[in-house]
Amino acid sequence: MRVLLVDDEQLARDELRDLLKPEPDIEIIGACANAIEAIAAVNRLAPDVVFLDIQMPRVSGLEMISMLDPGRMPRIVFVTAFDAYAVQAFEEHAFDYMLKPIDKARLDKTLERLRQDSRPQDLGPLQPSPALRQIPCTGVNRVTLMRVEDVEYVLAKPSGIYVVGADGQERFTELTLRTLEEKTPLFRCHRQYLVNPDRIKEISFVEHGLAEIATIAGQTIPVSRRFLPMLKERLGIA
Question: 0.85 cut: is pTM over it?
């Protein structure tokens, strides 16, 4: 099993790494100090299992799950300091979890479950609201959490996914177009674009069944023939 460790505490990551190292069928492919790094690692490395801390700054473990593409979802083992009542809730939904500090016997039990059952877990019961309120964007030595209502549009390029606000600046995000389409009000208007319907100022209809959107901030976004009827329906345009 290819394993990714996610915890904002270095000591906790090192402790778990030391406990997993002797396991012959476990390959630790990475360790992340926050959820933003972890989203990128999941997309890039495609781990089989993620040992995920729940309580992390900025973006929690549960919020991170809601930001992952369901098609790339690994099995999740929660690492938590929650009390017994919260742990009971995890058990009722058949999720693997470990309490801090990690007990070796409990870890062995979790690993045995993972070895015996490779089916993807249903994360629905533990996710917060399916709607994302902010989109994590990464830059040089910084992470920006951009509110969805401030987004003009999202663009897919060969180099990745970029979120654009009223200032026109393209901000890179590790979230996929699919995730943003499913978990935000952003609407697909083109194979490469999502638009914020609340930021549409006007639509110009051009030749060959195509159109262009002008946003409130003056951005221009193409609308493809395929998505134009759905956009018109969304906006109540006859």
Answer: no
